[in-house]
Amino acid sequence: LAAVPSPTTIFDKIINKEIPAKVVFEDDQVLAFRDIQPQAPTHILIIPKNKDGLTGLAAAEEKHCEILGRLLYTAKLIAKQEGLNDGFRIVINDGPSGCQSVYHIHVHLLGGRQMNWPPG
Ligand code: 5GP
């Protein structure tokens, strides 16, 4: 049986260069670009080019461990590239209660201002 194709999102259009984005990092697996509605001086989204069913973290299976690690490691590389030497925040929103709006897994990298805890 053929796998059911996962629904596409706006992020597929960004990956395919159908709509513009301010790309800050790209390799064969991962793309990172500035959020269109930044919540901090630095606000970058890090996404897998092939989401492989990862609409969000709740959809993760063991086979996704490598890409999940790659997203976090890329976030660290970009934090350094952005000069966030004093700290930063990583966020993964999941599902309606988690305020997820795009169902293509992504890591938010936020920095350049003091973060608060607990978050709202
Ligand atoms: P979520 O709420 O799903 O965790 O985050 C989705 C993020 O994608 C939001 O912060 C939103 O501002 C961002 N976003 C949505 N559409 C676009 C777009 O077309 N371009 C860019 N650069 N960011 C987008």
TrEMBL record:
<protein>
    <recommendedName>
        <fullName>HIT domain-containing protein</fullName>
    </recommendedName>
</protein>
<dbReference type="GO" id="GO:0047627">
    <property type="term" value="F:adenylylsulfatase activity"/>
</dbReference>
<dbReference type="GO" id="GO:0005777">
    <property type="term" value="C:peroxisome"/>
</dbReference>
<dbReference type="GO" id="GO:0009150">
    <property type="term" value="P:purine ribonucleotide metabolic process"/>
</dbReference>
<feature type="short sequence motif" description="Histidine triad motif">
    <location>
        <begin position="104"/>
        <end position="108"/>
    </location>
</feature>
<feature type="active site" description="Tele-AMP-histidine intermediate">
    <location>
        <position position="106"/>
    </location>
</feature>
<dbReference type="GO" id="GO:0006790">
    <property type="term" value="P:sulfur compound metabolic process"/>
</dbReference>
<feature type="domain" description="HIT">
    <location>
        <begin position="10"/>
        <end position="120"/>
    </location>
</feature>
